[in-house]
Amino acid sequence: MPDPSRFLDLIRAALPDLHPAERRLGAFLLDFPGEMASYDAQELARLAGVSKATVSRFVRRLGFPSYEQARRAAREEGRTGSRLYLGHAEAEDFTDLSAQIEEERSNLEWTYRRLSVPALDALCARILSSRKVWVLGQRISQNFAGYLGWQLMKLADDVVSIPRAGETLGEHIATMRPEDCVILFALRRRAAGTDAVIDEILQRGSALALISDEGMAVRADVPWHFQCQTGTTGPQFNHSTVLALCHQIMLRTSAAAGPAGRASLRRVEEINERIGAL
Predict the structure, then answer these.
(1) Any idea of the CA torsion for 251, 254, 255, 257, to the nearest 10 degrees?
(2) Rounded distance between C-alpha atoms, residue 102 and residue 230, angstroms
């Protein structure tokens, strides 16, 4: 059996040697691999414009004894988080927003049901008491790390979002201390070595909060692990729940900061007014 985690690689490698109809099916699956994970052989043949017999020959050329085993391989690789598996060959109707509203509601409900208020409040208290707060994210996660870091720097004494241009994570992890707090975003597709980064931070003794999508198994060795559902019917992941969680952290940190936090926010506004920043 071929390695199911390399389903798309198998297609790319086989493509030059395939017969025309099989090549057409292979090119189709490179664009829409999720269709194999979702449909039976007859439906896949219809979508790709080939015969069912072509589908059968194709999966055997990839090394799979049956269509069902190839389908399982596509599902397995789909769990890695490739956005290619979100696309659909048949155009979707986005004119009616009710389906998107339901998607947002479902994702938020899933995420909020798994949030622990005591855990959130404990994290916010740790943010305020830490020597330094590190907000870490790579790839798509870097955007959310920058956003949350920008929000928290108005309340905590020392907040830094990493990595910045030209920096390596090792330069920062080496200076982390037990009295620090690290908030790490690990949204799919995660950067290679994410688990090793988590292990290194834990070894430094810093308090670690992990924010991931629903596809990452909960790590019991991490003090706080918050999962956000990012499921969608479109070609890109839905990150509205990640922003909602950032908002909750900011709200609760502001409340925990009390009068000192309000004074800090006031100072920021007053300085911005004096220097004409706004």
Answers:
(1) 160
(2) 13
Distance CA 204, CA 200 (A): 6
- 188 or 241, higher pLDDT: 241
What is the model's pLDDT at position 201? 97
d(CA 25, CA 23): 5
- Please name which of 26, 58, 43, 142 lies closest in space to residue 150, comparing C-alpha atoms: 142
Residue 98: pLDDT band with limits 50, 70, 90: confident
Percent of the chain residues topping a pLDDT of 90: 57
Query: What separation in angstroms does the CA of 168 have from each of 140, 162, 171?
Result: 17, 9, 6
Question: Is the bond into 163 cis (omega within 30 degrees of 0)?
Answer: yes
- Structural tokens at position 241: 């729940």
